[in-house]
C-alpha cells in the first residue's frame, strides 16, 4: 500500500528561521500564505505592482513585496502564479535572485515537467500540490481539517528537500488529511487528466447534457437546474464522505437500480476510449504544446470558449435560483 504521511511524519521546525515567499495571491496563493502564517511560519507575499490582490493580502495581515524583492529576502519560494506566466516571471524576477541552498517550489508540475522552467542545480526543487481548490485549502484549514496533497522532489541540493516539503505540507494543513510522495511527471499527468476528463470538463459536460436533454424535451429549466446541477453537490458530498457505498445507501433503491443500469450507457466504451486518447495527448506533450502556443497568441480559443459557455441558459437560471438561497456564497 502507498505510504501516507501524516502530522507525526512532518516537522514544522524545519521551517524555523526560514522565510517563505508566496508568489501570487490567488486561489492557492492566499490559502498557502494564510495557512502557513497561522502555523507560525514567516511568510512574505510576492506580487507585481498594480496587482488587484496587493491590498487584499495586506488587509489579511501579510507583508507584500514585488516578486524580485520577496525572492531576495526568502529561503523558500513557492510559485503560485498562473502556470502560463511562471516561465516569464521565473526568468525575470526569480532566477536572478535565488541564492544557493534556497528552495524553489510548485503546486503543480507543468512547467518543470514540460521543461518550461529549467532550475539552476544549486537549489532544492520540490512540489506540494493540494488535491483541491485553494479556497477549500483555506476553508478546511480554518475548520481544523486539511486537503490531501502530493509532494515530489525534483532536485535535492540540501539533502533535506523531502523533509522540507513535508514541513511545508504540514504548514498548509495537508498532513492532517494525508500526503503521498510522487514525481513531477505523475502529478502533472494525473492532475491534467483529472481536471480535463473528470473534475472540470467531464462534470460540466455531463451536467449540461442532462440539462439540455430535459429542457429540450419541454421540462422547466429551473427543475432541470436543480436536478442536474444543484443536487450534484449533495450527491458528491455523500461520495466525499463515504464513497459510492454511502451515496448508494442514501439514495432510493430505484435510484440505485437506475445507477447500475444506465450509468454505463452514458459513460460507455466510446467514452473510456476517448479518455485514453486524452491521457495520451497529455503524456506525449500535445496538450502542453497546444496550451503554451494558445497563450503566446493571447488565448483566442480560450476566450471564445469562455464567452460561449457564459451564454448557455444554465448560467442565467442558476444565477436567479442561487440568489434565493442566501446560505450559498458566491
Ligand atoms: N486553483 C487551484 O486550486 C489549484 C492550482 N494549482 C496550481 O497553483 C498555481 C497557481 O494557480 P492559481 O492559484 O489557480 O492561480 P490564480 O490565477 O488563482 O492566482 C494567480 C495569482 O498570481 C498573481 N500573478 C499573476 N501574474 C503575476 C506576475 N507576473 N507576478 C506576480 N504575480 C502574478 C495574480 O495576481 P492578481 O491577483 O493581480 O490577478 C494572482 O494573485 C498553478 O501552478 C496551478 O496549477 C494547484 C492545485 C489547485
Ligand atoms: C481540478 C482543478 C485543479 O487541478 C485543482 C483545483 O486541483 C486546478 O488546476 O485548479
Ligand atoms: Mg488539481
Ligand atoms: Mg490542475
From TrEMBL:
One Gene Ontology term, aspect cellular component: cytosol
Domain KARI N-terminal Rossmann per the UniProt entry, residue ranges: 2-182
EC number: 1.1.1.86
Note accompanying the cofactor annotation: Binds 2 magnesium ions per subunit.
Keyword Nucleotide-binding annotated: no
PROSITE patterns from the UniProt entry: KARI_C, KARI_N
Record's catalysed reaction(s): (2R,3R)-2,3-dihydroxy-3-methylpentanoate + NADP(+) = (S)-2-ethyl-2-hydroxy-3-oxobutanoate + NADPH + H(+); (2R)-2,3-dihydroxy-3-methylbutanoate + NADP(+) = (2S)-2-acetolactate + NADPH + H(+)
Source domain of life: Bacteria
Cofactor field: Mg(2+)
Residues that, per the record, bind Mg(2+) 2: 191, 227, 231
Family designation: Belongs to the ketol-acid reductoisomerase family.
Function: Involved in the biosynthesis of branched-chain amino acids (BCAA). Catalyzes an alkyl-migration followed by a ketol-acid reduction of (S)-2-acetolactate (S2AL) to yield (R)-2,3-dihydroxy-isovalerate. In the isomerase reaction, S2AL is rearranged via a Mg-dependent methyl migration to produce 3-hydroxy-3-methyl-2-ketobutyrate (HMKB). In the reductase reaction, this 2-ketoacid undergoes a metal-dependent reduction by NADPH to yield (R)-2,3-dihydroxy-isovalerate.
Protein name per its UniProtKB record: Ketol-acid reductoisomerase (NADP(+))
